[in-house]
Amino acid sequence: MARFVLEENQRRTVLELDKDVVVIGRGPQSDVPVLDLRASRSHCRVERHGTQWLLVDLGSQNGTTLNGHLVERSGLRPGDEVGVGAARIWFEQAPPPAGADARDTMILDPEREAARAREKEDRLLRLQRVARAVNSELHLDRLLAIILDHVIELAGAERAFLVLGRAGEAPSVRVARNFEREEVAEPDEAFSRNLVDQVLRTGQPLLAANAVEDPRFQEFLSVNAIRARSVLVIPLVHRSSPLGAVYVDNRLQKGAFTAVELQTLSSLADFSAIAIENARLYEENERRAKELEALAEQLARRVDRQAEELSDARDRLRRAGEPGGSYPQIVGRAPAVRDLLRLLDKVVLTEEPVLIEGESGTGKELIARAIHAKGPRAKQPFLSENCAALTETLLESELFGHVRGAFTGADRDKKGLFELADKGTLFLDEVGDMSPDMQKKLLRVLQEGEIRPVGGKAVRKVDVRIVSASNKDLKKLVEAGEFREDLYYRLKVLSVRTPALRQRKEDVPLLVEHFLRLHTPSGRRPKALGEGVLDVLLAYDWPGNVRELENEVKLMIALGDDVIRTDVLSEAVRRGRRPAATPDDDAPVQNLVELVERVERREIEKALGIAQGNKTRASDLLGISRFTLQRKLEKYGMEDSARDD
Questions:
Q1: What's the Cα-to-Cα distance from 231 to each of 175, 192, 203, 529, 569, rounded to whole Å?
Q2: DSSP structural state of residue 412
Q3: Cα–Cα–Cα angle for 466, 469, 471, nearest 5°?
């Protein structure tokens, strides 16, 4: 059994402990409890080693002294003085207290102190449970009820009132209950407002063992009116500002509340005030959110009205000249495209033949399909054929069909495109490359509405809308005697011209974005354009038009990283448009007909030389049909330099 004499705050406490290790400190588990804030929670310990005792400092912040000297480990003998902060602890024996008698010394019962420690720990655990319950509720009314129920439980009160109101305001009872959790009748008259006003004014708690006889409250009429006895009032303070108070009482028992209840409820009030303010802010935010939601609904209704007005305005603009139809397959917003779409709005309503003119790659077949899809024959077949891609014999068979035995290899009857497209639309591309004989046969079909298969004798009636296209100027071919004038006017009942891409440069970004989405493999994200790529694309004149741009985008997708850079663009695009030749003002004006003839003769001779006189290969090199090459050879008297295939 070891004896320790603790002197602190002019009071001595004697502890007799039968332990081999005695912990000294400010923590609740300490065997020798010290109150001084300079003491650490586990400050030092005394260890028994046989008959010897050892003092060990536990890394305390302010250090441990032995007989006035700082030590970390040292032997301990009876009569030694251990210093922990302002507290003094003598081992085994102590000098008599200075200026005091034996009544200043209290001998503690270790079992009683352990019980008190357990009680204190129990209160802390209960406060921890209450804190969790309080912090989990954000609705103010439910939160106040939870707080008050725990107040009654912790204080052992008969009744409790939770009053909200700041200093200078009339306090308002928000919740009032008794120990059976029943609502208190007429709560505004059941407690002392004077006591609550004082607590709200001073911000200090108030404890009365018998309020009705307490001289501090003799002038308070409300205390006498309710015959208050045990009363405890705790302020609810948030950021130095009182929010209200918790009022508990016991009208029958005097001294029902002690410093323990005061300390416990003060701790509860501290975190309850924070929870109350959070709940207030939450409800305020909810109220504002509802106001914002109402304002948003009003704004949405206003936006809807404005959208309707905008839609009406768009309709008026559309009626004033904007295209009315929907052509999702045609990408573009440039004025030239809008003009084209406005014209299509009228063309699609008829069944007359349409001639589409424009440079290669401008999307003539796309326009033809749009005319069919929006026209009265939309549910019927749409077929197409490139007249420059086939020889005259094959083209005639492809268009009009053939009967079995009509020529070598014709082992069965075959329907032509005119018959297959009956009631629908037939698109004939590059009609300017048709031979004179094919032009005559096509004219007869357009005039009579009937076809005769190759090798056949019987004619067949067909009802086909013709949409034709050419990248050549058919009017000039008519003037040059290379295209039948009567067929020209049969095909050009209605005329549409597709704009070159250089005439609608503002559509390049839209087209690039469209082709990136169109040609990106399924399931992958389209690649992005890096810095400067769009500028390079806009600077190029695109002689191959939209088809060339589409091929360039395919190249970018194949060679580019996630962010496409300019180094993957084709060399021609990177170089940009070719600079225009500087005119020589002193040079004489040349005859264009003679200049064109010289250029054509030179290039034909070059192509025939490379192709060793083969007309088909030469026409491929020149980018024209074999039929056109034959006409030019006849025109320039160059038949002897070429040979048949």
A1: 17, 9, 16, 77, 88
A2: S
A3: 170
User: Angle CA(444)–CA(448)–CA(453) in degrees, nearest 5?
Assistant: 65
CA-to-CA distance for 119 and 108, rounded, in angstroms? 16
Q: On the CB side of 600, how many CA atoms lie within 13 Å of its CA?
A: 20
3-state helix/strand/coil string of 512-530:
HHHHHHHHCCCCCCCCEEC
d(CA 571, CA 555): 12
pTM of full prediction above 0.85: no
Smallest Cα–Cα separation from 119: which of 160, 154, 158?
Answer: 154
Confidence of residue 316 (pLDDT cuts 50, 70, 90): low
pLDDT of residue 583: 46
In this structure, the strands spanning 241-250 and 159-164 are antiparallel
Strands (E), 85-144: 87-91, 105-107
Percentage of the chain lying above the pLDDT 90 cut: 41
554-558-559 Cα angle (round to 5)? 120
The answer to whether 577 and 537 have CB atoms below 8 angstroms apart is no
C-alpha dist (Å) from residue 555 to 186, 505, 524, 567: 86, 20, 17, 11
Percent of the chain with pLDDT over 70: 91
**Element (H or E) spanning 260, and its range?**
helix 259-319
Q: Residue 427 in 3-state DSSP? A: strand
d(CA 293, CA 497): 53
Helices assigned H by DSSP within 458-591: 474-479, 485-491, 508-519, 533-539, 545-559, 571-575
Encoded amino acid at 180, one letter: E
Task: Find the distance separating the first CA and the last CA of the chain, reported in whole Å.
Answer: 127
Q: Measure Cα distances from 542 to 39, 353, 514, 560 in Å.
A: 87, 30, 17, 20
pLDDT at 580: 43
User: Residue 553, exposed/middle/buried by CB under 10 A (0-12, 13-18, 19+)?
Assistant: buried
> Where are the extended beta strands (E) located within 72-118?
73-76, 81-84, 87-91, 105-107
Quote the pLDDT of residue 99: 55
Query: Encoding tokens for residue 66?
Result: 């032995």
Task: Identify whether the C-beta of residue 639 lies closer than 8 Å to the C-beta of residue 633.
Answer: yes
Tokens of 480: 């040059």
> What tens digit of pLDDT does each residue of 122-181 get?
677 777 787 787 887 888 888 888 888 888 888 888 899 999 876 566 778 899 988 888
* C-alpha to C-alpha distance for 490 and 125, rounded to whole angstroms: 100
Instruction: Count other Cβ atoms within 10 Å, centred on residue 534.
Output: 14
Sign, Cα dihedral of 91, 95, 101, 102 = positive
Average pLDDT over the chain reads: 86
pLDDT at residue 102, as a whole number: 42
**Encoded amino acid at 4, one letter:** F
Q: Which pair of tokens denotes residue 117? A: 């420690």
Place of tokens 């309020």: 211
Q: How far apart are CA 12 and CA 97, in angstroms?
A: 8
Instruction: Provide the β-strand partners of residue 455.
Output: none
